[in-house]
């Protein structure tokens, strides 16, 4: 049986997923209750935590914080995963790629690029067919800027 006092932030541990809500996975760390909130589940997009890990599945997580009063540990699965945004940032600046329209907003069009990465084509840059872009359509775009700390990609039209 695991003791909560033996854990500390940064500790890597194994546990079993016991339940899931709309935004949380509950993990049994051999007698200690652990929770993984949506922002700490994965770098990839998902609509429900069970798309990341299923009930009964063994997972490896990192301890973020410990609440001894509630005998509960806050965990992260994402901390142990590779961040695809970093790879994109290192290789795609200035390249031409194809994006699929995921959302049209007053500030511009959001397109999904490779590997579930999204970028914004600002409204001021919308020309031609892009002015009437519809969800699901594909367009060639240039990756014009990347802000790693804000996790933002700005796109430009190719023509």
Describe what this molecule looks like in 3D:
By secondary structure, the protein is mainly beta. The protein contains 1 helix and 10 strands. The strands form 2 sheets. It has a 5-stranded mixed barrel. Strands 8-7-6-9-10 form a 5-stranded antiparallel beta sheet, with no helix packed on it.
Primary descriptors:
159 residues, mainly beta, 5-stranded mixed beta barrel, 10 strands, 6% helix, 45% strand
Characterize the largest beta sheet: strand count, sense, and whether it forms a barrel.
Answer: 5 strands, mixed, barrel
Output the helix-strand order.
EEEEEHEEEEE
Which strand-content bin applies to the residues? over 45%
Give Rg in angstroms: 20 Å
> Strand order across the biggest sheet?
1-2-3-5-4
Low-confidence stretches: none
Q: Report the helical percentage.
A: under 10%
Record field, number of beta strands: 10
Tally of DSSP helical segments = 1
Amino- and carboxy-terminal Cα gap:
63 Å
> How would you state the average pLDDT, rounded?
93
Q: What overall geometry do the principal axes of the alpha carbons give?
A: elongated
Secondary-structure class: mainly beta
Question: Could you outline the blueprint of secondary structure elements for this entry?
Answer:
Elements: E1 12-20, E2 24-29, E3 32-37, E4 58-67, E5 72-76, H1 84-92, E6 96-105, E7 108-112, E8 118-122, E9 138-147, E10 152-157
Parallel strand pairs: 3-5
Antiparallel strand pairs: 1-2, 1-4, 2-3, 4-5, 6-7, 6-9, 7-8, 9-10
Short recap of the structure:
It contains one helix and ten strands, in the order βββββαβββββ. The model has no long low-confidence stretch (mean pLDDT 93).
């Amino acid at each position: 049986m695991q003791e909560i006092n033996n854990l500390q932030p940064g500790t890597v541990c194994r546990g079993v997923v016991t339940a899931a809500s709309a935004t949380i996975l509950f993990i049994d760390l051999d007698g200690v209750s652990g929770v993984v909130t949506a922002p700490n589940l994965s770098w990839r997009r998902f609509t429900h935590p069970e798309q990341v890990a299923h009930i009964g599945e063994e997972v490896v997580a990192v301890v973020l914080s410990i609440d001894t009063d509630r005998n509960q540990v806050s965990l992260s699965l994402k901390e142990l995963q590779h961040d695809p945004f970093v790879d994109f940032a290192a290789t795609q600046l200035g390249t031409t790629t194809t994006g699929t329209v995921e959302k049209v907003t007053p500030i511009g069009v959001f397109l999904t690029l490779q590997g579930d990465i999204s970028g914004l084509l600002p409204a001021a840059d919308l020309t031609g067919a892009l002015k009437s872009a519809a969800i699901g359509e594909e367009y060639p775009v240039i990756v014009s800027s990347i802000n790693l700390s804000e996790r933002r990609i700005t796109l430009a039209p190719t023509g």
